[in-house]
From TrEMBL:
Residues 27-398 form the Aminotransferase class V domain. GO terms for molecular function: cysteine desulfurase activity. It comes from Microbacterium mcarthurae. It is an enzyme of class 2 (transferase). Belongs to the class-V pyridoxal-phosphate-dependent aminotransferase family. Csd subfamily. Its cofactor is pyridoxal 5'-phosphate. It catalyses: (sulfur carrier)-H + L-cysteine = (sulfur carrier)-SH + L-alanine. This is cysteine desulfurase. CDD domains: SufS_like (cd06453).
Length: 413
C-alpha cells in the first residue's frame, strides 16, 4: 500500500528531529553524510535483538532458524528495493567495503594486468578512487579519469576518447556527493560496453533520492550504504549481475562461505554467500529492510517532487547571497537536494561552526573528494543536503543563517 506523502507526518517518524541546539530547533542538513532513522528502523533492530537474536546459517535451534529466516527475508526485501533478485545482493559493511571487495576480487582473478586501464571520474568519493588506485599499483594497470566541466558535469567528449580497447573497468558515481548532479549512466554504460569493460556504480547518493532499478541501468556492479537510506550503520550491499558475481573469486575468507574444507584447500559457496565470511550483520540487515519498506511505502513520486522543490529553493537562495560560490551550479542536469559551496573570505569550518550556533547542521571539509575540490581550487567547502523530512522553512532558516556569515566575520562590504 502506498502512503500519501506528507512532510509533517514523515517528520513525526524521526524522534531526533525534535532536538534543540542552544534553544533553537535542529535543522539537519547533513543527510548526505548519514541519514536519520525513523521509528520503524529503531524498533526493528531492537525487536530482533530482544526476540530473535542468534547466529545465522549455523544452528539447528529455534532462534537460529528464526534469525536466518529474518536475515534472508531482509536480503530479499533490500534486493527488491533496487530491482534485483536476492541471490544478486551481497551484504557488506557499507559501500566502501563493497568497492574494495570488487577491486580485490578482480585483482585475485587476474582480470587486470600491465597495460590495461581503469577509468574513474574526477568527481569520485575516495571510496571509489583509492581501491582502484591500489589495484592499478598492484597490477601495473593505468588509472585514468574523466574530468568535469566548470559546471560540474562530466566531459563526455573526453570520456569517449578515454574509454577504449585497453579499458577493463569504468567506475563512477550515480550522483556526486559534492555536486549533487545525477551523472549520465546510460551514456557511460554504452561507452563501457562498446569497449567490453566492466561497469561499477557508486549509488550511495542516488539510493536515498531516486527510484533505483539497478539491472535496468545496464551497469554490472553497484554499491550502496544503509546509513544513507534511513538504515543503520555498518550495513550496505553490493549488487551484481549473476554472471559477473559468478566469475569473481572471494576476496575475504573464513567460515560460512565454504562447502568443503580440508587442511590443504577449500571449496566455496556460490554468490552471495561466497562473499560473506564470518559473523553476519544480522540485526543491521533486518533494520535496513525495515528502512526500505518504510521508505518504499511512501508516495515516491510526491517525495521526489518535494525534494526537487527543496533543491531549487536551496540553490536559488544561495545564488542570491553575495560572496557565495556554488560547486556544480548547473540547471542542465538532473540533481538531488545537495549543494556544496564556498563562502568568500571565510573558511568552511568557520562557516560550519557559525551555522551550528544557529541550530543548522551541515558538512564541512573536502567530503572525501580531495581531487574534485582541487579541481575547483579549494581545500574545503560547506555542504548542505536535504532529505524527505526537510521542510521549506528549514531551507529558509539555513539561507538566512548563511546570509549572515560574512558580516559576522567582518568580510565584504
Amino acid at each position: 500500500m502506498t502512503l500519501p506523502f506528507d512532510v509533517a507526518a514523515v517528520r513525526a517518524e524521526f524522534p531526533i528531529l525534535g532536538t534543540e541546539v542552544d534553544g533553537r530547533p535542529l535543522v539537519y542538513l547533513d543527510s548526505a553524510a548519514t541519514s536519520q532513522k525513523p521509528r520503524a528502523v529503531l524498533d526493528a533492530e531492537r525487536d530482533f535483538l530482544e526476540t530473535a537474536n542468534a547466529a545465522v546459517h549455523r544452528g539447528a535451534h529455534f532462534l537460529a532458524a528464526e534469525a536466518t529466516e529474518l536475515f534472508e527475508d531482509a536480503r530479499a526485501t533490500v534486493a527488491g528495493f533496487v530491482g534485483a533478485a536476492p541471490e544478486q545482493l551481497v551484504w557488506t559493511s557499507g559501500a566502501t567495503a563493497g568497492l574494495n571487495l570488487v577491486a580485490g576480487s578482480l585483482g585475485y582473478a587476474g582480470r587486470l594486468r600491465e597495460g590495461d586501464e581503469i577509468v574513474v571520474t574526477e568527481a569520485e568519493h575516495h571510496a571509489n578512487l583509492i581501491p582502484w588506485q591500489q589495484l592499478a599499483a598492484r597490477t601495473g594497470a593505468r588509472l585514468r579519469h574523466i574530468p568535469v566541466h566548470d559546471d560540474g558535469t562530466l566531459d563526455l567528449a573526453i570520456a569517449t576518447d578515454l574509454i577504449g580497447a585497453r579499458t577493463k573497468v569504468v567506475a563512477f558515481p550515480h550522483v556526486s556527493n559534492v555536486l549533487g548532479i545525477v551523472n549520465p549512466v546510460a551514456e557511460l554504460v554504452a561507452l563501457a560496453q562498446s569497449a567490453g569493460a566492466l561497469t561499477v556504480l557508486d549509488a550511495c547518493q542516488s539510493a536515498p533520492h531516486l527510484v533505483l532499478d539497478l539491472p535496468k541501468t545496464g551497469v554490472d556492479l553497484a554499491v550502496f550504504s544503509g546509513h544513507k537510506i534511513f538504515g543503520p550503520y555498518a550495513i550496505g550491499a553490493l549488487w551484481g549481475r549473476d554472471e559477473v558475481l559468478d566469475a569473481l573469486p572471494p576476496f575475504t575468507t573464513g567460515g560460512s562461505m565454504i562447502t568443503t574444507v580440508t587442511l590443504d584447500k577449500a571449496e566455496f559457496l556460490p554468490p552471495p554467500q561466497r562473499f560473506e565470511p564470518g559473523t553476519q550483520p544480522v540485526s543491521q540487515a533486518v533494520a535496513l529492510a525495515a528502512a526500505v519498506r518504510w521508505f518504499g511505502a511512501l508516495d515516491r513520486d510526491a517525495a521526489h517532487a518535494h525534494e526537487v522543490a527543496l533543491e531549487r529553493r536551496m540553490r536559488e537562495g544561495l545564488r542570491s547571497i553575495d560572496g557565495i560560490r556554488l560547486l556544480g551550479d548547473t540547471d542542465a542536469a538532473e540533481r538531488v537536494a545537495l549543494q556544496a559551496f564556498d563562502v568568500e573570505g571565510v573558511h568552511a569550518h568557520d562557516v560550519g561552526q557559525f551555522l551550528d550556533s544557529r541550530g543548522v547542521a551541515v558538512r564541512v571539509g573536502h567530503h572525501c573528494a580531495q581531487p574534485l575540490h582541487r579541481r575547483f581550487g579549494l581545500t574545503a567547502s560547506v555542504r548542505a543536503s536535504a532529505a524527505i523530512h526537510t521542510t521549506e522553512d528549514e531551507i529558509d532558516t539555513f539561507l538566512d543563517a548563511v546570509s549572515g556569515v560574512r558580516a559576522f566575520f567582518g568580510v565584504g562590504a
